[in-house]
Amino acid sequence: MNPASTLPESPVLPPRDYQVYSGDDLATNVLEVAMGPQHPSTHGVFRMDVSLDGETVVKLKPVFGYLHRNHEKIAENVTYLSSMPYTDRLDYFCSMTNNWAYAMTVEKLTGIAVPERAEYIRVIMAELTRLQNHASLVGFFVNDLGASGTPLLYAMREREHILDLFEWASGARMMCNYFRFGGCRNDLPPGWLQQCRKVVDAFPAFMDEFEKLLTENEIIISRTQKVGILPRPLAINAGITGPMLRASGVDYDIRKVDNYGIYNRFNFRVPLGEVGDCYDRFMLRLLEMHESVSILKQALDSIPEGPVIGDVKARNFRPKVGEAYGRIEAPKGELGFFLVSDGSPKPYRYRVRPPSLINLTVLEDMCLGHKIADAVIILGSVDIVLGEVDR
Amino acid sequence: MILNTLLDNPDQILVNLFHQGAALLQACPALVIALGILLSTVPLVAIFPACFAITTWLERKGLARIQNRIGPNRAGWFGLLQPMADGIKMLLKEDIVPQTSDRLAHFLAPVLLLIPAFTVLSVLPFSRNMIPAAADTGVILFFALGSISTLPVFMAGWSSHNKYSLLGGMRAIAQMVSYEIPLVLSTVTVVMLTGSLNTVKIVEFQQVTHWIEGSNPALQILGQVLKWNVFTPWGFTGFLIFFISSLAEINRCPFDLPEADSEIVAGHLTEYSGFKYALFFMGEYVSAFAISGLAVTLFLGGWSGPNIRPWWSEDPRALLIPGFVWFFLKMFALILIMIWIRGTLPRLRVDHLMAFAWKFLMPLALINIFIAGAYYYLPHWIGWPAGLIVIYACYEGLGRINRRHLGPKRIYRYA
Amino acid sequence: MLGKGIINGLTVTAWNFFGSYFSKSRLTTVQYPEGGNTVTAFSRNIPFLVFDDANAPIDSLRCVACKICEKECPPQCIYIVQDKDANGKLIKSPKIFDIDISVCMGCQICVEVCPFESIKMDSHFELAGRDRFADLLLHREQLAKSNDYYHKIHPAEAREVDDRLAAKQKKAGPA
Q1: Of B342, B351, C88, C156, which one has the fewest beta carbons inside 10 Å?
Q2: Mean pLDDT of the region A148-167
Q3: Is C137 among the domain residues?
Q4: β-pairing verdict for C119-122 and C46-51
Q5: CA dist., res. A376 & res. A382, Å (int)
Q6: What radius of gyration do chain C's Cα atoms show?
Q7: ipTM of the complex, rounded to two decimals
Q8: Which residues of B are less than 8 Å from C9 in CB distance?
Q9: Is residue C104 part of a domain?
Q10: Is residue A63 over pLDDT 50?
Q11: What is the pLDDT of residue B58?
Q12: A175 and C6 in contact by Cβ < 8 A?
């Protein structure tokens, strides 16, 4: 029995209105491919509707929203403290920095002071997060290029050491929920700083091996140089932030511009790219890892003793009426929180400025004119996490 | 009787078996021919699928160790039964054939891929007097039969009636056809210097016969190793070009664009499931063995290895460790290098692939032919270093010409 | 030299290949279930209720059913019903204390806001069951674990909690 004969009659759709390009006297149709929510390369549930002329991309529309979880609306219905675990899950690779941005915004709203030791702990955790995020990103990027997972697994091997540190300090490897308004939830356990020092001291050896494997590799160079160029004016106008912006040559690092936390006490450099292609973005993240290691060494050398949380009421936390915008240099870009308070224990409006989403807006401009195999690589170099894009 | 054979000359076991069987069956010549055919083909058909199973295990364990993991270790000791488990799984899968596909082509494609893969094994000498089909034009026969394997790839892509498969199949053929040229050109040097297309003569050319038949064991060992073609400048270049082109011919990393997410799906293999998929992979791996076998024969001295003559034997060409042991060792060494490369390098994009074949490997192979010619006429002490320098200069020159569009090396400044 | 990057890469992977046979840092796989099911003294998974007396586990629960944790829980996975005594008057004990562990995100906020040190984080994680709903809704009896267990899984924290409770007792005692 032919199963097709039992299917209902399918509706007759009107013929598609294709555009015909006749540049070389050959009438061709545009091929529309939906690189659908399930990718062989990672980055989460994300769809790109790509229109191809042969192999070249002529139009690209990113479609997201598959991971929308109503984060901002939930935050309007729970108290300020209860939103903190939800911020872990925004950019799930970098839960500590998400916590920091939110805690900083609430501290701006209410004027809570943060003790010294807590500031140092925050910087240490943020830089550790930056290290493991950039290492994983480089690993995933080279995985998209087809390297059968070897650099990814090396990066994950190092990331495990950092996640073990996070578990030791906060109780969980990824969803740390460690920062509070006015400081950190609990002090670092005894021995944590020594172990952190050991991990940080071992990191440059891993970085040397990683760079030896990747930076001069001719195949990576030919596949990523001059691919996905983001011109400087476009980057500035589109609101791109983070390593993507610095790869296009704009000197804008929020750690230097805002001097939030105690970053003005540390000596670190900001690497800049020239061309703004995928290779620059990839190299920039490797260079930023070196700078993070130097910041960590300085912080671990000079962390003082003291309390880790300021004087803040835990329950019935009612900030006064007002609004505040707090932003940090998250590993992916400028992560900002905008809070409007109406005096009640729950925020009136809670808005997240997700760096991944804003960085995605220029995906089409970067991909036009390239082949479809490059579109996957360009997406990989933008560094998106769907938890942040969709919230 | 068989034990005597083994002890006397372990190298020639199959040959002696054949001779004794022929003596027994003297009465019926047809049966003698049949015995000859059986003794040539049955070991091939038995051993190479076993090698395929071992190679899949080696690949998974090797890649795992490179990536700091363990690899399969639950199915049997050290995971050695894993290939059997995979085979059973493949056999039990449902065989899905798309309704709109061209059924005959869809069915024949994996079979047609296997046939040339096994057939070309017949021109490779596995040991002295152990070659299934001693043809005078062995090398050309190898390439002629091997080129057939381009067609089933396209048949698979076409018959699936799927635009991604078609595109994947077309890219695969473009890749395989482009890399045929450097592949063949790099073997021209060996043929030129040996003066024959016969693989048996090519292996003999790489052995210093009077040292081997002499009585000094040190000289016997050296004589079997020193004259390999890979130790000459043209041979080394030829070997490298041959090896890289062979990676492209069998669609292996870093040239595996056809079968690994080309436009997101598996290219020409999309619509194959179950046993047919396993047959495609067997075809790919047996082609890998065949091409490695040819590389070993042409450049690495075939079945010769550091051997001495067993002291009890009267035959001047007897070997203590059989020749086929060295052949398989060298072949597996090349396979291990292929696995190593797979664990390290990312994939080449399709236009880079083509540019690499046509603009880099082909000129280099042509220059290599001239170097080989010059090497033949010049005395060795000039030919060797001159050849090396010229080849290196051409390699660097071609590299720089091909990468001119990339710009200077990047230096990153700090704000 | 052209090809130097590729050769560098090949040496790195070869080094890792051989190193994986000799050094533990290059073979980081831990095979479950022979290993990898250990937790540290700081790990947290889902909450549990602490009781002090092993002979009367439910009666000696420290929880007084104040419902603060239920209110503060971000995904609202706790359900509490206060117990009544024989006369129908509300007493300081939970009759029903359910946690839906398929919803619980292990954020520890219930532990932070509890004024009576009665709910703490457990680190046991092999909680799979066969029933999609019934096995993942833990009741008071399944959540009640002794203070000795708390000492076993989080020793430093349990000692601090005991000190705090003893200090509170001393302050309340003479009064």
Answers
A1: C88
A2: 90
A3: yes
A4: antiparallel
A5: 10
A6: 24
A7: 0.87
A8: 344-345
A9: yes
A10: yes
A11: 92
A12: no
Instruction: Please check whether residue C22 lies inside any domain of the structure.
Output: no
Neighbouring C-alpha atoms within 13 Å toward the C-beta of A193 = 15
Instruction: Check CB contact under 8 Å for B344 and A251.
Output: no
Query: Which of B173-177, B318-322, C156-160 has the lowest average pLDDT?
Result: B318-322
Q: How far apart are CA B210 and CA B220, in angstroms?
A: 9
Percent of chain A with pLDDT over 90: 37
**Chain C nearest C-alpha distance from B341 (Å):** 7
B349 chain-A contacts, CB cut-off 8 A: 222-223, 371, 373-374
pLDDT at B322: 79
Taking the alpha carbons of B308, B310, B316, B322 in that order, is the dihedral positive or negative?
negative
Q: Are B256 and B241 in contact (CB under 8 A)?
A: no
Is B400 part of the contact surface with chain A (CB cutoff 8 Å)?
no
Q: Is residue C19 part of a domain?
A: no
Closest CA to A328 of A127, A52, A92, A56: A127
Whole-angstrom distance, CA of residue A135 vs CA of residue A289: 8
Task: Return the pLDDT at B8.
Answer: 63
CA A298 to CA A124: how far, in whole Å?
10
C138: CATH: 3.30.70.3270
Q: How distant is the alpha carbon of residue C163 from its chain centre?
A: 20
Q: In what order do the strands lie in the sheet with C119-122?
A: C119-122, C46-51, C144-146
DSSP string across A285-350: HHHHHHHHHHHHHHHHHHPPPS-SB-S--SSS--PPSEEEEEEEEETTEEEEEEEEE-SSSS-SEE
φ, ψ (nearest 5 deg) of residue C51:
-120, 155
The CA distance from B20 to B2, in Å, is 9
Number of continuous H segments (helices) and E segments (strands) in chain A:
15, 11
Q: Tell me how many domains chain C contains.
A: 1
- Over residues A48-76, mean pLDDT: 87
Determine the Cα–Cα distance for residues B12 and B23; give it in Å rounded to an integer. Answer: 16
Task: Report residue B299 as tokens.
Answer: 């450049």
Q: Which chain C residues contact residue A220 at CB under 8 A?
A: 5
Asked whether the beta carbons of A362 and A379 are under 8 A apart, the reply is no
Domain with C56 in it: 47-146
Mean pLDDT of the B251-256 span: 83
Please give, rounded to a whole number of angstroms, the shortest distance from the CA of C43 to a CA of chain A: 4
pLDDT band at B159 (very low <50, low <70, confident <90, very high): confident
CA B36 to chain centre: 25
Tell me what pLDDT residue B266 has.
Answer: 61
Question: Which residues of B175-214 form beta strands (DSSP E)?
Answer: none
Tokens coding B242: 């041959």
SS3 A129: helix
Q: Residue A4's pLDDT band (boundaries 50, 70, 90)?
A: very low
Q: Is C114 helix (H, G, I), strand (E, B) or coil?
A: coil
